[in-house]
From TrEMBL:
The keyword DNA-binding applies. Gene3D superfamilies: 1.10.8.60, 3.40.50.2300, Homeodomain-like, P-loop containing nucleotide triphosphate hydrolases. GO terms for molecular function: ATP binding; sequence-specific DNA binding. One of its GO terms (cellular component) is cytoplasm. InterPro entries: AAA+_ATPase, AAA_lid_NorR, CheY-like_superfamily, Homeodomain-like_sf, HTH_Fis, P-loop_NTPase, Sig_transdc_resp-reg_receiver, Sigma_54_int. SMART domains: AAA, REC. Coiled coil: none annotated. It comes from Citrobacter arsenatis. This is Acetoacetate metabolism transcriptional regulator AtoC.
């Protein structure tokens, strides 16, 4: 059965309104018409249309002012603007204000219908994604690990095998590379999935508090110990304990941890009863424990107990094929959390993200996208929405960079890098534009604009 949509048509030209209303009514849709932005706002509130088709230049209230009010009231209803050739710059500004897209007059009715259909399909898809996020919020699946990187895919395959075992695991990698995510994947795909998953950051607590957190204490064991308290080892029984930043654990506690790994038993602080536990230890570190062993700051026997299986996660700069994938994932996540309806990341902005060295790895990328979503008022993340270092890469790193004499040269460098990335991905995808757009994290339409701008012929790439 064909879906019937409510379409609000806003234009000060009677013939344009009649033509569009007739065309869409013949397709079976419900249409409403207004001659200016002010009248459109009244109809907008009354009818709550599925999509708005609106001219920019109109008396009393123009399309951009009306768009801003509509976005504030119902940010998820797509608004498509109509503009003349001379107003393209205004239309681009409208995209920043939240328009879904724009069409240039005189337009082809079939093309306009396709734009409307794409807007409606995207809204339905985003609703499905929101429903899926809710469904997954209380469960764990491998889909939590997003990657196009062959190296990360190999790690995921290894993780699936590791999860079926009972072996201790050591995960190393720079801060923000996803060590906790891998640890959770191991736990929730193991036989311990119904047991607790408990994490402690060994660098976050002083030695005295860390010992109490891990082992617990008896009532009266020390000043302030007014009642018995179970430690994390005890609470993690039949589950998994993640010891994050294990390299920061003091030597004295390392010896006690070694005993638990060997004998699976311990005593609470101030207690004499031996408590046996069935736990799996996963340790994570951003330091080289082998170097620490040589320096005498980490016990060699503990290192070998933890290092039964060792996973090393690559930094984000070594898996650049994942940047667009992760950026779009965070765009969906933070748009949903902040009740925003941001559609995509502009190709130039995505090129800047892809070229960035990401010293803070995935955590830094997440923060950058969250900031862009919060600060953005439109439907597209543009380069201007990114922090200043991304737009001025000279100050972003201590690595030597070519000197730029002015704004024009910087833009030219960005365009050259953008063209190079597009050509590389296009070649990897054998000239397939749909797959190329997907890998770049942009719409197929945006890719077509870029191919035209740079004079790239996919068939000869």
């Amino acid at each position: 059965m064909k879906t019937i949509y409510r379409i609000l048509i806003v234009d000060d030209e009677d013939n344009v309104r009649r033509m569009l209303a007739t065309a869409f009514s013949l397709q079976g849709h419900e249409t409403h018409c207004a001659s200016n932005g002010k009248a459109a706002l009244s109809l907008f509130s009354e009818t709550l249309p599925d999509v708005v088709l609106m001219d920019i230049r109109m008396p009393e209230m123009d399309g951009i002012d009306a768009l801003k009010v509509m976005r504030a009231q119902q940010p998820r209803i797509p608004v498509i603007l109509m503009t003349a050739y001379a107003e393209v710059e205004t239309a681009v500004e409208a995209l920043r204000s939240g328009a879904f897209d724009y069409v240039i007059k005189p337009f082809d009715l079939d093309e306009l219908s396709m734009v409307i259909q794409r807007a409606l399909q995207l809204q339905e898809m985003k609703q499905e994604i929101r429903n899926l996020h809710k469904a997954l919020s209380t469960s764990w699946q491998w889909g939590h690990i997003l990657t196009n990187s062959p190296r990360m895919m190999d790690i995921c395959k290894d993780t699936a095998k590791i999860a079926l075992s009972q072996a201790n695991v050591l995960i190393s990698g720079e801060s923000g590379t996803g060590k906790e995510l891998i640890a959770r994947a191991i736990h929730y795909n193991s036989k311990r999935a119904n047991g607790p998953f408990i994490k402690i950051n060994c660098a976050a607590l002083p030695e005295s508090l860390l010992e109490s957190e891990l082992f617990g204490h008896e009532k009266g064991a020390f000043t302030g110990a007014q009642s018995l308290r179970q430690g994390l080892f005890e609470r993690a029984h039949q589950g998994t304990l993640l010891l994050d930043e294990i390299g920061e654990m003091p030597l004295g506690l390392q010896a006690k941890l070694l005993r638990i790994l060997q004998e699976r038993e311990f005593e609470r602080i101030g207690g004499h009863q031996t408590i046996r536990v069935d736990i799996r230890i996963v340790a994570a570190t951003n330091r080289c424990l082998q170097t620490m062993v040589k320096e005498g700051t980490f016990r060699e026997d503990l290192f070998y107990r933890l290092n039964v299986i060792h996973l090393t996660l690559p930094p984000l700069r070594e898996r650049r094929e994942d940047i667009a994938l992760l950026a779009n994932h965070f765009l969906q996540k933070f748009s949903s959390e902040n009740q925003r309806d941001i559609i995509e990341i502009d190709p130039t902005a995505m090129s800047m993200l892809t070229a960035w060295p990401w010293p803070g790895n995935i955590r830094e990328l997440s923060n950058v996208i969250e900031r862009a979503v919060v600060m953005n008022t439109g439907a597209v993340i543009f380069a201007d929405d990114l922090p200043d270092p991304f737009r001025n890469p000279v100050s972003a790193t201590t690595e030597p960079k070519p000197s730029y004499s002015g704004e024009r040269n910087l833009k030219e460098e960005i365009k050259r890098e953008e063209k190079r990335i597009i050509l590389e991905v296009l070649d990897n995808q054998d000239g397939n534009r749909t797959r190329t757009a997907l890998m770049l994290g942009i719409s197929r339409r945006a890719l077509m604009y870029k191919l035209q701008e740079y004079g790239i012929d996919p068939s000869g790439s």
